[in-house]
Amino acid sequence: MNTANDAPSLGQTLMARLDEAATFSRPGPGVTRLFCSEEHRQVLEPIGDWMRQAGLEPSLDASGNLVGRNPRAIAGEKTLILGSHQDTVTEGGKYDGMLGVALPLVALQALKEQDVELPYGVEVVAFGDEEGTRFQSTLIGSRALAGTLDDESLAARDAEGISVAEAIQAFGGEPEAIPDLARRPEQVLGFVEVHIEQGPVLESREHAVGVVTALTGIERQRVSVTGKAGHAGTTPMAGRRDALVGAAEMVVEADRLLQATDNFVGVVGKLEVRPNAVNVIPSEVTFTLELRSPDAETRARGREEILSAFRRLAEARGLEVAIERTYAAEAVACAEWLIEVLEEACDGAGEPAERMFSGAGHDGLAMHDLTDIGMLFVRCRDGLSHHPDEAITAEDAERATRVMMQFLRAMASRV
Questions:
Q1: How far apart are CA 183 and CA 396, in angstroms?
Q2: Which of 3, 12, 313, 393 has an alpha carbon within 20 to 30 A of 22's alpha carbon?
Q3: Which SUPFAM superfamilies match (predicted)?
Q4: Is residue 279 marked as binding?
C-alpha cells in the first residue's frame, strides 16, 4: 500500500502511462500506430481509463477521435479543448502526440484529487490522425472538430486501397455524421496542446518548457516521373529514359535549393520505384516532397523554383513529370492572450520559459480555424523526434505537468 511518501510523482505517473501507450504498436523498432488500426483501437482503452480517473466521460466520436468531457462541458458550458494525436509515424517515438493526450489528464486528475473544481468546461481529445502516415490526407480529427474536413479528404486511400471514410466506418465511426462534430466557436474558450519540442532549442537554453508563438506552414507534393522500362543489360546507356536517375537528380536539386534558402526546409520522405526489379530500367518513380516555412511567400517562391527545376531536369532526360499538391496548411499564430496565460503558468510553477516558434505542424493548424490556439513545448533529448530514440525525462514530465495545473487554474480568471 502506497503512502504519501512513496506514491509515484506526477512525472513518474505520466512516464508510466506513456510507456503503457507505447506497447500498442506494430512489431518493430519504436512505435508504429496508424489511424484506425488495431493498435489505435487497443490504445483507446487505457486512454479512456485515464479520462475517467480525471473526472471526464470518454466517448468515440464520428471521426475516430476519443473525446473526454467534464460535467460542465457535457452541460454545454463554454469549454477549453486540450489534447493531441494518438497516431505516429512509422517507427516513431513514444512521446510525439501521446504526451499531449496523457499530460493534461494527469494534471486534471491531480487537481481533482486536490478538490479543485474548474469553473468552465474541459475536453481532452485524443485525435485519431495528425501525422497522415496511413493516408495522404492529414489532421483528420482536428479538422472534423473545426468543421473543415471535406469529402475529398474522406476519399483519400491508403496503400491497400481503403478510403478514409471506409476505415472510419470499420473503426466504429460514422463518416456521414462528421459534419455534426463541428464545434460552435462561441462555445469554445480555446485550444491548447502540449508537445515535445522536436528540436534542440530548449536543450540549448537549459529550459524544461517553452511557450510557442506560431506554427509553421506546410505543403506536400506528389511527384510522378515516367520514363521507359527496358532490359538493363541490352539497352545502351545513351538514350535511356531512366525514371530513377531523373528522380535522383530532382531529389538532389531540391536539397540544394532548400540548403540555399533561409527559413525554408523540406524533405523527400517517400519514394516508390516501378517495376523495382534488379535487371529492369525503372519506368516510373513516385516520390513525396514536403516543404515548410513560417513565411508563405518564402515557401511559394521556393516551391516554384524547385518544381521548375524538376520540369527542366525531366525534359533534359526525355522524361514526363506530373506534380500534384496533396496537402497545404498556412502558418498560424498562437493567440497572444493564451501565450500570456501560459507564461503566467510557467512563472507560477517556477519554470523559466521563453517564447519560441514551432517548425513542425500540429493539430493547432486545423483548430485555428475554430478558435484561439496556444501551445506548450517540452524539452526532448537531442531535439530528436520521429525516431525510436525520442526521449524526455521524468523530471521534465513533472515540471510540465505542474505548469499545466497552473495554467488550468489561471484560466479561471479568463472565463
A1: 33
A2: 3
A3: Bacterial exopeptidase dimerisation domain, Zn-dependent exopeptidases
A4: yes
C-alpha cell at 210: 517553452
220 known ligand binder: yes
User: What whole-number distance in Å separates Cα of residue 138 and Cα of residue 128?
Assistant: 10
Cβ atoms of residues 73 and 123 within 8 Å: yes
Specify the DSSP class assigned to residue 231: B
Per-residue pLDDT of the chain (415 residues; tens, 9 = 90+): 344 456 679 999 999 999 999 999 999 999 999 999 999 999 999 999 999 999 999 999 999 999 999 999 999 999 999 999 999 999 999 999 999 999 999 999 999 999 999 999 999 999 999 999 999 778 999 999 999 999 999 999 999 999 999 999 999 999 999 999 999 999 999 999 999 999 999 999 999 999 999 998 889 999 999 999 999 999 999 999 999 999 999 999 999 999 999 989 999 999 999 999 999 999 999 999 999 998 899 999 999 999 999 999 999 999 999 999 998 888 899 999 999 999 999 999 999 999 998 988 899 999 999 999 999 999 999 999 999 999 999 999 999 999 999 999 999 998 8
User: Which one of 1.10.150.130, 3.50.50.60, 3.30.70.360, 3.40.50.261 gives the CATH number of domain 217-329?
Assistant: 3.30.70.360
Q: Is 10-215+331-414 a CATH 3.40.630.10 domain?
A: yes
128 SS3 class: coil
